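Quick one: structure tokens for this chain, please?
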Amino acid sequence: MPSLAQADEGQENASTAAADWIAAELDSSQPGFDQFGKAAARTDVIFALASAGVREGSARQALAELVEGAADYVGPADAPNPGALAKVLLAVLVNREDPASFLPGRHLESELRALQRADGSFADDMFTHSLAMLALASTLDGSPTDAGDWLAAQQNSDGSWSSPFDPGAPDVDVTALALQAAIAAGHSQVAALAADFLIGEQNADGSWASPFGDPNANTAGVAGQALRAAGETAAADLAADFVMSLQTADGGIRFTEADTVPNGFATLQGVLALGGGPYHLLDVDPFADVTWDHLFAREADWLGDSDVTRGCDPPANDRFCPGDSVTRGQMAAFLHRALGDTLPTGQSGDFTDTADSVFHTDIRWLAATGITRGCNPPANDRFCPGDSVSRGEMAAFLFRALGD
């Protein structure tokens, strides 16, 4: 299949705004996407934020909240719900966590593989079967070959797949998910036929007809995501345009044109059209040394989300080093990135020991705001950028920056 196209700037901005809305909703006392179950909603939050490629800390927060209800959502190990199991497994893998330890005494990948039947299917309906394929496609062993063969055998002659609620009729949402599963399985001809079906059914404004009423953001989201994965960039961009036409000023996305306020489910699904990859390639990029259950995971991830920290191991910057001490130079960078646009600055002189420091600009800003006065009173002509910051010094820095 063709390689994934990058979203344009408008899509990126819309995607980031939607992710900010989702993160704020997640932090609210009653998230609007929880009305049909918290666990299911948390998997969709993870997929949406991974698709947006921002707010990794909020995605990890959603994973930490998912674990609270995941066992009940998935069902018992000897009789799990295949669709719920597939979604939880995929959410865990998207966060780069271990499916063998996420739930005590459970191995999510093994449980899902055990549900495959002799004919290659995981369930009678294509939506659940496709979810299972996409979750397993994200594992090291990949999705079983016969699962892809069964998927292909169920395809209608027009390239679509049908809903379990109406076996004789093509279904856009089911076809979009099955198209992604076909791509993950390497069934290029099957995927091409499915993409042609979706393009043929697409309205001029980028939407698709819905049996439940007006064209909506949910269908456009998953169909646009699938078409982008298939390399059909023009059709995918058209779907993104439709989704963006439903976006409100606060970043949320309305379900249909007739609605006046954002809808939680529409935002979680609609954002998928805005330039992200298919489900099996979604990825949350947290710090590798801060697991979701680390004592300070949320705080470390927030620092990364906010660009206050960029990691501890440049140029890779894929680690946070949560047990390391903070140097005075690093502290200057943290405060500068966090508060740089909010504090007045005066005239600043250079310290004698900072010219070669990577944090030279940050240290000059720190002095210009009056947050630091140097490290060698009374002269205070040095900053000591490599020294560790004591808790007392940190108290003084924060008081000068934030105190009355």
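The two ends are 60 Å apart (CA to CA).
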